[in-house]
Amino acid sequence: MPVLCSSCDDKRAVLKRPKTGHSLCKACFFRAFEEEVHQTILAANLFKHGEIVGIAASGGKDSTVLAHVMKLLNERYNYGLELMLLSVDEGISGYRDDSLETVKRNQQQYELPLKIVSYEELYGWTMDAIVKQVGLKNNCTFCGVFRRQALDRGALMLRVDKICTGHNADDVAETVLMNILRGDIARLRRCTAISTSSEGEGVVPRCKPLKYAYEKEIVLYAYFKKLDYFSTECIYSPNAYRGHARTFLKDLESVRPSSIMDIIHSGENLSVREGVKMPVQGTCNRCGYISSQTLCKSCVLLEGLNRGLPKLGIGKHHRLHDKILTQQPLTEKEERKLKSVNF
Amino acid sequence: MCQVEEEYHGPLQREELPSVSKQCMKCKEAGAAVVIRAGDAYCRGCFKEYFIHKFRAMLGKNRLIFPGEKVLLAVSGGPSSCSMLSQVQEGLSQNAHKKLRFLPGIVYIDEGGAVGQSVEDRRRTVDQLQAVFRATGFPFLVVPLEQVLDLPSSVVLSAPGAPEWKAGAYKAAVDHFLLSDGSSGVTAQQQQETPPLEVQEAHTHSLQRLLGSARTLTAREELLNTLRQHLLVHTARSAGYSKVMLGDSCTRLAVKLLSSISLGRGAQLAHDTGFSDSRYGDIILVRPMRDYSAKEIAYYNRMFSVPSVFTAGLETKTADKSSIQRLTESFVTKLQADFPSTVSTIYRTSEKLQSCKSLASAGGDRCLLCVCALDTAAENASAFSATLISEQLSQTQSPEQSRPAPEAPPPASQCCSAVGGEACGNRGGGCCSSAEASEPPPLRSLLCYSCQLTIKDLSSEEVLPHYILSEAQRRLRRSQLREEIRDFLLEDEADEG
Ligand SMILES: [Zn+2]
Ligand SMILES: [Zn+2]
Ligand SMILES: [Zn+2]
Ligand SMILES: [Zn+2]
Ligand SMILES: [Zn+2]
């Protein structure tokens, strides 16, 4: 006997919601998924009428579903937003070429303007060239740091008021776990925020409309909507420690499906003891980007790449920032330490 | 897409292999007998000194235990709590200026009934533990978990009169104690034999039915933890103790922190894992073993023949993925093997957290089960409200229902809503005035986020012990009453009950 949809009690259910366990028909699932994103946007006051919003588009499932739903809700509920796709070309042959093709198709399907900024034009280095110098072990440090700034710079170029990213509930929960495992209390406090307000010059506010959407439901949504997305993982895969956290989260979800939301709830309700030192946010002395050090992470990484000292940006070498800034030569001992990268 | 959206402080380092030095790093004379962390090698004598010093330092730093105060040591028989017991013994036998000055007693909660042990097995375990306890000379209590069924409702209230320890109070108490020659008081404490209470079979069955009603091992463990804590607090209260010492090690607390996060207990973390836990008001729980790793404790116990007694737990024989607690434990253990700084890093996180002060001090509502401040105010854009919305959107909708209220069915007929503009939410077409006829609001509303998850996993709420259910009824009646007179109240006052 077919199972009836628990929402309309009329049509045949085609899926079991990973988030709540309810059996739903296609139409009711679409409605529930979209309505939840809408409620999140309303409740968190993410946008204002008339704003220009850049959707960070990578061609992957999260950003493809985000672009689709944002476009749909903007029309359905008359948000009055001017939407555009914002893409970063890291210069990873094979991976990026294909995913950018997907983004370009999305642009046509959704009739949204697309802007692509490349690492090469921003930094003078492609990821492929970086990997040649630093090896596979540390490349994600570069990938992540450069990516964050690239989006900001692209957004500034396009005069975008806000960026929204495809981070989903699984990503947020995983980040909570990661920050606990790393003992990073400052990020632990920040990472569950649904939006970052403008933190300084050159930083565009960001938000995560899919913050409460389960990854599995995003996949289901894309599948039933037959959305066109690129499904290969970044070939320069994330580090092992995050991999452990991810596996742990998946295991938790299989024991108790609400775990993902439960972890986010935990993160939202943590309270940090007074007197615990938090890094002071300032700006980078070289490029003006937000940074807790004299030089921002991306400037230090670049300096390391350009000088042929790739380790400079990877370890903790804050002491050297002043030297770099004033263009003093490093001692032989310092050079030696920073040159060797163990692969 | 690359998942590393945030910059790193640098990759986590795998710890280098310990340089095996043959000499004690402390006295630099004797040969090393134990290596705790990379490079930390101690001889037997120095290890003992280091271990004992750490215990006293933990108590000294926090200045929470007053001289002459009665302190109940909760001993489960495991290595950590048995090690704690031996540390208290050491502390009392030290010379004057290093001596601990509180009055210890021991409690053992016998959970054999909950895990289906035979009466003979339970007696054997209790006999072994009693031998250990007797040897200390401290008074001790053996309390079967079945007694939790007979607790008074006062257990789930935070008792008033938790004295805020003033800055000078500790010193004043010490001075007073020294003047009155308190040393005699410590040793003069009598060790009375209280015969272990006979457990009725019917009680054991009720307890088993209660725990068996949990459909998941996760919920069963949470329930057991809650019941055990209630019984501990009640035992301390009725025997005149004001502090309860728990034997949680650093390793244990790291697991607890991570599983608490996974269970939605972020708001309660500081209570669950901190040095002191004042949620019960007059009885304060302290965790003096929180600086020791499980490994250190094992070394110490073996080297200095500290006895411990194996007791069966709920999860002794189960697979890794059977519960969230169990899964977390195996995750932390495996990660610790690869990255030896895992436990200490997680543990340090716990030191930087505090419980939501604003909630706790406002005298607001507390959870019926865990007695922590409620964290379920459905604020805009929270995981809690998002979950309610998801549930609501996945269930049959009626046109009138537009706001998230997943439990309340729409009124069947004309009701007082016509006057108040709001549905009163009772079934069967009755009206608010007939309070008896209306379905009571769900027990869930009295629980924190995490305890709601636990209760959701029970097949029936009716199996909960009487002291919890009767307190629930009292609170629900009060909130119903408050609802009825709301229009006449000038301020939205918190319920002091
Ligand atoms: Zn349907
Ligand atoms: Zn910079
Ligand atoms: Zn990458
Ligand atoms: Zn020594
Ligand atoms: Zn609770």
From TrEMBL, chain A:
<dbReference type="GO" id="GO:0005739">
    <property type="term" value="C:mitochondrion"/>
</dbReference>
<keyword id="KW-0808">Transferase</keyword>
<dbReference type="InterPro" id="IPR020554">
    <property type="entry name" value="UPF0021_CS"/>
</dbReference>
<comment type="similarity">
    <text>Belongs to the TtcA family. CTU1/NCS6/ATPBD3 subfamily.</text>
</comment>
<feature type="binding site">
    <location>
        <position position="166"/>
    </location>
    <ligand>
        <name>ATP</name>
    </ligand>
</feature>
<keyword id="KW-0547">Nucleotide-binding</keyword>
<dbReference type="GO" id="GO:0005524">
    <property type="term" value="F:ATP binding"/>
</dbReference>
<comment type="function">
    <text>Plays a central role in 2-thiolation of mcm(5)S(2)U at tRNA wobble positions of tRNA(Lys), tRNA(Glu) and tRNA(Gln). Directly binds tRNAs and probably acts by catalyzing adenylation of tRNAs, an intermediate required for 2-thiolation. It is unclear whether it acts as a sulfurtransferase that transfers sulfur from thiocarboxylated URM1 onto the uridine of tRNAs at wobble position.</text>
</comment>
<keyword id="KW-0820">tRNA-binding</keyword>
<dbReference type="Pfam" id="PF01171">
    <property type="entry name" value="ATP_bind_3"/>
</dbReference>
<protein>
    <recommendedName>
        <fullName>Cytoplasmic tRNA 2-thiolation protein 1</fullName>
        <ecNumber>2.7.7.-</ecNumber>
    </recommendedName>
</protein>
<dbReference type="InterPro" id="IPR032442">
    <property type="entry name" value="CTU1_C"/>
</dbReference>
<dbReference type="InterPro" id="IPR014729">
    <property type="entry name" value="Rossmann-like_a/b/a_fold"/>
</dbReference>
<keyword id="KW-0819">tRNA processing</keyword>
<dbReference type="InterPro" id="IPR035107">
    <property type="entry name" value="tRNA_thiolation_TtcA_Ctu1"/>
</dbReference>
<dbReference type="GO" id="GO:0002143">
    <property type="term" value="P:tRNA wobble position uridine thiolation"/>
</dbReference>
<feature type="binding site">
    <location>
        <position position="62"/>
    </location>
    <ligand>
        <name>ATP</name>
    </ligand>
</feature>
<dbReference type="InterPro" id="IPR056369">
    <property type="entry name" value="CTU1-like_ATP-bd"/>
</dbReference>
<feature type="binding site">
    <location>
        <position position="88"/>
    </location>
    <ligand>
        <name>ATP</name>
    </ligand>
</feature>
<dbReference type="Pfam" id="PF16503">
    <property type="entry name" value="zn-ribbon_14"/>
</dbReference>
<dbReference type="InterPro" id="IPR000541">
    <property type="entry name" value="Ncs6/Tuc1/Ctu1"/>
</dbReference>
<feature type="domain" description="Cytoplasmic tRNA 2-thiolation protein 1 C-terminal">
    <location>
        <begin position="282"/>
        <end position="312"/>
    </location>
</feature>
UniProtKB/TrEMBL annotation, chain B:
<dbReference type="GO" id="GO:0002143">
    <property type="term" value="P:tRNA wobble position uridine thiolation"/>
</dbReference>
<dbReference type="GO" id="GO:0032447">
    <property type="term" value="P:protein urmylation"/>
</dbReference>
<comment type="pathway">
    <text>tRNA modification; 5-methoxycarbonylmethyl-2-thiouridine-tRNA biosynthesis.</text>
</comment>
<feature type="region of interest" description="Disordered">
    <location>
        <begin position="393"/>
        <end position="412"/>
    </location>
</feature>
<dbReference type="GO" id="GO:0016779">
    <property type="term" value="F:nucleotidyltransferase activity"/>
</dbReference>
<dbReference type="GO" id="GO:0000049">
    <property type="term" value="F:tRNA binding"/>
</dbReference>
<comment type="similarity">
    <text>Belongs to the CTU2/NCS2 family.</text>
</comment>
<dbReference type="InterPro" id="IPR019407">
    <property type="entry name" value="CTU2"/>
</dbReference>
<dbReference type="GO" id="GO:0005829">
    <property type="term" value="C:cytosol"/>
</dbReference>
<dbReference type="GO" id="GO:0016783">
    <property type="term" value="F:sulfurtransferase activity"/>
</dbReference>
<protein>
    <recommendedName>
        <fullName>Cytoplasmic tRNA 2-thiolation protein 2</fullName>
    </recommendedName>
</protein>
<dbReference type="InterPro" id="IPR014729">
    <property type="entry name" value="Rossmann-like_a/b/a_fold"/>
</dbReference>
<keyword id="KW-0819">tRNA processing</keyword>
<keyword id="KW-0963">Cytoplasm</keyword>
<comment type="function">
    <text>Plays a central role in 2-thiolation of mcm(5)S(2)U at tRNA wobble positions of tRNA(Lys), tRNA(Glu) and tRNA(Gln). May act by forming a heterodimer with CTU1/ATPBD3 that ligates sulfur from thiocarboxylated URM1 onto the uridine of tRNAs at wobble position.</text>
</comment>
<dbReference type="Pfam" id="PF10288">
    <property type="entry name" value="CTU2"/>
</dbReference>
